[in-house]
Write a structure and sequence with these properties.
binds alpha-D-glucopyranose; single chain; binds calcium ion; six-stranded antiparallel sheet; 533 residues; alpha/beta
Amino acid sequence: MAQERLAGHAWWQHGVVYQIYPRSFQDANGDGIGDLPGIGARLDYLADLGIDAIWISPIYPSPMADFGYDVSDYCAVDPIFGTLEDFDQLVAAAHARGLKLILDYVPNHTSDQHPWFIESRSSREAGRRDWYIWRDAGPDGAPPSNWLSEFGGSAWTWDDATGQYYYHAYLKEQPDLNWRHPDVRQAMLDVLRFWLDRGVDGFRVDAIHHLIEDEQLRDNPPNPDWQDGMSPARRVLRARTMDQPEVHDAIAAMRRVADGYDDRVLIGEAHLPFDRLMAYYGVDLSGFQLPFNFHLIFTPWQPSAIASLIAAYEAALPEGGWPNWVLGNHDRSRVASRLGPRQARVAAMLLLTLRGTPTIYEGEEIGMTDVPIPPDRVQDPWERNVPGLGLGRDPARTPMQWDATAHAGFSTAEPWLPVAADHAKINVAAQAADPRSMLALYRALIRLRRTEPALSIGGYQLVSADESALVYERRHEGKRLLVVLNMTGSKRVLQHFPPGRVLLSTLLDQADGRIQGTLELRSNEGCIVMTDI
Ligand code: GLC
Ligand code: CA
């Protein structure tokens, strides 16, 4: 329930964020697609889980070429998801339960069906022509540069009617906005105000690293590390199309808008190495409060690699910059598939005991795994454009598994993506009744994070990392907690362990066990220990 403030910390620092992919969370009107009333119906579940904020992937009117990440009206709700009234009700209902609500803001591109683009492509003289990035063909009719679309093919699409190419970092149905144009900026900042005025508590800002491209359209250099089987978009290094210096000015403008309201947060989606990522906090922290840190997803699951990752991240953080951690989202293979169901429990303990704001992706709390999608049910345009390389994101976007009934309690109709075959076993209802389930573990971890501020705002220090175990300390106001993670399938005995008591095991079968010098971890077990000193 409602979170009290921890002295000196904002809600987005000590809170836990939960990502909802709205098409797949809960369908309330029986069309096989999740919606806002569906989310409303599950707020009690979320409050009970103990999270503090929900981030909802895009809900705006959209032709759904990229399932909502192609927006045709930034200031409305797609009828598939409901109405603006439904949205207002959801905000009120969330707030009544002490939950914050964060929307997805998609500034890099609109839908090709957005009125701005329809106007822009109507003629070269159109008032909004320069709201997008139009260029003449090269002498031989070729695209203006070698830039590639993330979803396959050239990033330039030829427009016959006006005889120019337009640029799109993603699908050709997602033309990039021209953020160098002051009117684009104004219009897009007004979008933030529209939703902030309606009470949203912040935004997750989509694909921010793509916001601005090289003005001279210089070619991207070839990627020497590209190999067969990798995404074709990686054939070039995105030196001219990503992470351009002007982006920070645009982010600071977004932040100034958000800071005109109290207590709002901006979370940025930037896929970058640490040295580049840190710039997204902005000069004097004038940028995102939380530039997403995705590196846990890509780091080998091994104690020393994870310890080095944490150390490198902590060392790179700017003064006063608040950390954050992510294990999965609607774009990545699910953690229980990447690591297996047993290590997924250890991963949950890691995520929820690291210093910084954790984000949980819907379904991770019950250990959902990637669902194989038969070819005739593929939805993701990336998989359709570049088939067979495993790039498709549908497997991580299948319906939330609420119970053992036909469509997993997600819908009364056949869902837009298939429900996991194992849903009769892996579902919320079954796990709610099982005191040792993954769901029980998530609840216990979140509860402990709340009762022991050391876990949310305390200091972090590495104790040890070897072939099998990662041990670190969280310390706050005279309390010292040790997190001990066995990242292997063999048992592990730690000698000379400080005296204390086990607060929580990932296996949920020992609590308050005394530690007398030795800590025995079973295979795939993690423990949180309160030391006597
Ligand atoms: C982000 C989103 C992804 C989307 C892309 C284009 O990476 O997370 O789902 O396809 O941006 O908007
Ligand atoms: Ca629906």
